[in-house]
C-alpha cells in the first residue's frame, strides 16, 4: 500500500489519529487505536498520534506521538480530563500545518473529539469518527444521573445536544447521546461491526458504515492435539461481559460429562476456585496471546454490548474460532464463530458438549477464523481507510469553510445528507 496521499491531489500527506483515552490503559478502544497507528505506519503512512500517553508509540517509524496535557483523571472511569476545546483545536491546527495532515480520525467522544470537529469545520479537513461502542451500559439505578451525564458532556465538549436517544434506559440513553453528539457532526462514521453501524443509522447517523478494526499479522499455530477441550475467556470483569455465563457453562459440562473434559482459562480477574477453571487474574497482552495459542477456542459471553471485541481478532489471527452468546456477534463473525441457541449458560454448555463429542465444527470454524483475519490485514485496512478518507474529503469540501478564529459558542456544521 503506498503512503497516504492528499485527497486534493497535493502529494504525500499525513493522517492524524486522535483519542481522549490514555494509551497506557489497554482497553479495547486503545488496543484498536494503537494497532491501527502501527499498521498504517507499517504501510508507509505518516501517522500523527494525539492522545494522552501517546509516548507509548515513541520510536515507532512513521509515527509522530503528541501527548496533550492532562489536568486530572476522572475517578472510576480513568478518563483523562484535558484542556479547553478551543486550546486543543489550536494545537491540532498547528499539527495539521506542520505535518500536512490530510484527514483526522477520532476514536472517542470527549474534549479532543470536539476539538477535532471544530478544527475540521474551520479548515474543511475531513473528520472520520470511529465508534468503539454505541452500546454504552450502566446500572439502571443510575438513571436519575442521566441529566448530569448530559450536562457534563456538553460542558466538557462545548457541543450542543443531539436529538435525544430513547432506545434504552435513561442513563444508557444519556451515554449513547455522547456518541451521537460527535457522530452526527463527523463527515464519515466508522463502525468496526455491521450491527453497530446499523444501530447508528437507525439513530440518525446516515453516514455510518461498517469498517473493521485491523487484525494483527497472521500468527498461525496448531491447536492443542490432546487433552480436554481448552478454552479462553479474556475481558474486563464487568457485568456486561458476563463471565458468570462462562463459569456456569463449565460447571454444567462437568456435571453432565464428568471432570476433566473441558478446561477454561480466565484472564482479567479471579473468583472462587472452581473445577476445570484456571483464573489468571490481570495479565499482559503477550500472556493473552500465549493463552490463545494454548486453547482450541475463545469464549465471548457478552450480550447486546460488544461491537467487535478485539479478543476475537486476536483469536482469528491465530486460527482460533470464537464461541459467542450474542446472536449479533454470531452473524457478524460468520464462519469464524459458533453461536449458542440460547444466550444463557445452558445454551453455551450445549455447544461445548457438542464440540467435545465431535470437533469437526471447531475445525471448520478455525478455517473461517483464518479467512476473516486474512481479509483484515494491514494492507487491506489501509486501502479501505484511504477510500473512506476520500469520501469524507468530498463531504468536507462541500461544507462552507468557517472563520479561523475560535469561539466558545462555535457549532460545527452537520454532515451533508
TrEMBL record:
Instruction: Kindly give the PANTHER family that the UniProt entry links to this protein.
Output: SULFOQUINOVOSYL TRANSFERASE SQD2
Q: Which InterPro entries match?
A: Glyco_trans_4-like_N, Glycosyltransferase_grp1
Q: Where do the record's region annotations for Disordered lie?
A: 396-417
Q: What is the lineage of its organism?
A: Bacteria, Bacillati, Actinomycetota, Actinomycetes, Micrococcales
Alphabetical keyword list: Glycosyltransferase, Transferase
Organism annotation:
Microbacterium kribbense
Q: Which Pfam families match?
A: Glyco_trans_1_4, Glyco_transf_4
On whether Acetylation is a keyword of this UniProt record, the answer is no
Q: What is this protein called?
A: D-inositol 3-phosphate glycosyltransferase
Q: Which residues form a coiled coil?
A: none
> Does this UniProt record's set of keywords contain Mitochondrion?
no
> Out of the domains of life, which is the source?
Bacteria
Glycosyltransferase subfamily 4-like N-terminal domain: residues covered: 27-208
